[in-house]
């Protein structure tokens, strides 16, 4: 019989974190840069807010907590992308000044001005277009999933309480019209 999987303790320890790498099969959607304790506080808060009863309602609330967590991560990612671009400004200005001095004989003080620094800061307050588009697409996807899961939970809770639930629910969202 062929044994699959890691054989050494080191390999077994590494493979135990496989679910954390992408989060698709982990119980907690926590990355290596996040805190399991913070996730647990978040989950407990969401459970307290929705007050699920029974297994299926609890699963829906856990899904909602995961979606909120991932939305928060998207905001953190966007912020880090902006911070990285802002942190690059001194190096970018120094490179431009060196080039200006050596290749074009432009004095450093003409290359690095308050106006140019301000312009660079303004131009980097949003992530570049492809990154921003990816973030917005991801956030929109998570928002749709969150809204759908909340509606499913509301319907479950209403049925449990003996209330009538609509057969269908229509939510319309999209970019603002011009």
Please characterize this protein's 3D structure.
The chain is mostly helical and 178 residues long. 69% of the residues lie in helices and 0% in strands. It has helices spanning 9-15, 18-22, 36-50, 54-87, 89-103, 108-111, 114-123, 129-160. The termini are far apart.
Outline of the structure:
The chain has 178 residues and is mainly alpha-helical. Helices cover 69% and strands 0% of the residues.
Strand and helix map with partners:
Elements: H1 9-15, H2 18-22, H3 36-50, H4 54-87, H5 89-103, H6 108-111, H7 114-123, H8 129-160
Distance between the termini: 66 Å
Give the overall form: elongated
Characterize the largest beta sheet: strand count, sense, and whether it forms a barrel. Answer: none
Structural class: mainly alpha
The total count of strands amounts to 0
Tell me the radius of gyration: 25 Å
Put simply, the count of helices is 8
Mean pLDDT: 85
Low-confidence spans: 17-25
Helix-residue proportion: 55-70%
Order of helices and strands: HHHHHHHH
Into which percentage range does the β-strand content fall?
under 5%
């Amino acid at each position: 019989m062929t044994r699959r999987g890691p054989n050494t303790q080191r390999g077994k320890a590494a493979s135990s974190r496989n679910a954390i790498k992408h989060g698709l099969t982990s119980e907690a959607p926590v990355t290596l840069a996040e805190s399991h304790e913070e996730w647990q506080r978040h989950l407990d808060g969401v459970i307290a807010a929705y007050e699920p009863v029974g297994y299926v309602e609890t699963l829906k609330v856990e899904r909602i907590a995961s979606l909120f967590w991932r939305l928060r991560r998207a905001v953190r990612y966007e912020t880090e992308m902006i911070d990285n671009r802002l942190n690059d400004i001194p190096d970018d200005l120094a490179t431009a000044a060196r080039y200006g001095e050596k290749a074009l004989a432009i004095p450093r003080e003409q290359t690095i001005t308050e106006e140019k620094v301000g312009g660079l800061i303004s131009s980097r307050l949003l992530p570049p277009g492809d990154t921003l588009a990816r973030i917005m697409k991801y956030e929109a996807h998570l928002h749709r999933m969150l809204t759908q899961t909340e509606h499913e939970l509301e319907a479950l809770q209403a049925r449990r309480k003996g209330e009538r639930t609509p057969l269908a629910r229509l939510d319309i969202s999209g970019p603002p019209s011009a």
